[in-house]
């Protein structure tokens, strides 16, 4: 089987254009990147829209953290690497042995997960927890901000016909949310009441997925004014401002005063949100941590112990989560188009993409790079 | 038995006062434990009066004695209305001496019983969900009022009393409380009978977890413990492999013993930062670390250790309805056949401070579960 994140290149073919990450504050648009070869069981995709994500910004501002500085165990690549892990595109070439579900020109999305397909986690289908895992666009083997990407058939999924390619670039952050909601006990709870900490792109994606998955009540805690408005727009029934109100007391009150929320999603990732999440959740409830942290945080096991609450962390997504989001998009139970707050060309990546996301964070949810317009 | 729905206002009425006196071990404050005469309680409606036979001294008692009052209220407890000084003893069994008006016909004077010490209001959100152990007003008989097992008599609501089968002796029944803590933790953890498990700490609670795991046929029980005596106990009670964190790399050993991936579940019965750090990494992808330990400080947590392997963390607190019955049954049918070995010393009520607390604190005898002999024999 073709391993996601292992791809051959053709040095005799005309090189291609790509945005490359070299290290802290260094991104270059290059025209001499070797083209990937579409081998057996693989599909070649021509990227259409690529989202810029918080992780990309992190790498730019303080990295390389996630991006490998020695050969990655699966991709065998290290910085510089091609950027872009949230993307849609069209099928450009179909490798030998690929099923007949795919045709050239078809609109697709790419699950960027890189995994070894042989470790303990991979063997039980938890490819997202692979011990040598990664993502194309962060760990090598190409990325969305290039002319061509090659991945195995299993990583490529069709976009519903009624969904545009720009919305297709939102499937990745929505899949993070889908995976988080799927990992929570939502399916076992009658009329689930949920609290989402943080109204950034991931928090907003969680709010939408919760509504699509039948949450009775969704509360969002967010400090930034503009993001509070986004939270309401995407379906939060109540918005709490943690800089002005006591989130724990307010969420208990909103939930009816007897028990706090059944599930809390931490999409803020600051010490204050961890503490508030653990203290807000009801007895035997679950805190799902989606956030990635930069340093150790103070934590008190007693926050959970006296109420027998659960804390679990999730990472990335699995194929089932991509399929879940694509199905919801097709049915219209998730309508995320207004998450797109800007579209830019690849040549303006830092100036018009990274900078506004860093300096005017509140105003934006997702800025997409329009690849067709960039070539 | 009491109603599980609706509040416990009636059941939780304090026992009526009497003019008789009895002997009791009472906690007055830090390092102030007194063996003294106090008023003997009368048996009110819906209540059962018991003569305690055997009562265990627990780590929580020692904690209160050495550094408390922490758990023991210094202002009136919301349910019992009492505060220090309070009678100690929450791990005890005894015989029924009197039945209050209106209790079930199934009880008889002389019955051998064990007391489940959780005090709960019955109407908070947690109680409405059946989680009396998470009650926002909860307390414990023997720590929060209503007397305790270290006294000549005690009166408790009927809901706290559980009958003992004939083959469960009263001294062993005093172990039901700590065993129920371990039993409950295993019950609500994601443990499945084929899983590999790491237990941090070989104290009474760690050993209770080991026994509960053994009762369920766990094929791989690893215990991490530093003290030589406790390491020995851990293997006596059923640990398959005992690891020493001062000499071995716990994470590497757990992974190696589990085909490279790590244990499915770890139970933290130690409550130290270093142990927690090791246990997180010793757990495989999607595995769970279950905290039973009581921590008095914050820890440093690196949440990404959870993210990158999608590990989980959960807290467990004491026991709920059902756990006492299950433990009593497991003792009776032999699944907890080693538990009597947890009793390492027997003393009289007047020796509680000198022979009980001091022995446990100084570790001169062992730091195991101890029982205090009260009046009455064991069978
Ligand atoms: N687990 C995964 O697979 C995965 C995937 C992608 C992103 N992430 C992580 O998810 C997190 C959220 O991503 P994002 O792109 O939405 O980030 P973001 O920084 O844009 O959003 C976080 C939001 O939290 C708000 N906030 C700050 N303090 C708060 C508090 N005390 N209470 C409530 N809200 C508070 C901020 O104002 C901000 O709007 C990040 O840590 C990111 O690294 C995880
Ligand atoms: Zn991303
Ligand atoms: Zn793997
Ligand atoms: Zn209650």
UniProtKB/TrEMBL annotation, chain A:
Keywords noted in UniProt: Metal-binding, Oxidoreductase, Zinc
Pfam families the record matches: ADH_N (PF08240), ADH_zinc_N (PF00107)
Cofactor(s) it depends on: Zn(2+)
CDD domains xrefs: butanediol_DH_like (cd08233)
Protein name: Enoyl reductase (ER) domain-containing protein
A cellular component annotation (GO) from this entry: cytoplasm
Species of origin: Extremus antarcticus
Protein family membership: Belongs to the zinc-containing alcohol dehydrogenase family.
Gene Ontology terms, MF aspect: (R,R)-butanediol dehydrogenase activity; zinc ion binding
Lineage: Eukaryota, Fungi, Dikarya, Ascomycota, Pezizomycotina
From TrEMBL, chain B:
UniProt entry keywords in alphabetical sequence: Metal-binding, Oxidoreductase, Zinc
Domain Enoyl reductase (ER): 29-365
GO terms under cellular component: cytoplasm
Cofactors (names): Zn(2+)
Pfam families: ADH_N (PF08240), ADH_zinc_N (PF00107)
InterPro entries given in the database record: ADH-like_C, ADH-like_N, ADH_Zn_CS, ER, GroES-like_sf, NAD(P)-bd_dom_sf
Spans annotated as Disordered: 1-23
Protein name (Swiss-Prot/TrEMBL): Enoyl reductase (ER) domain-containing protein
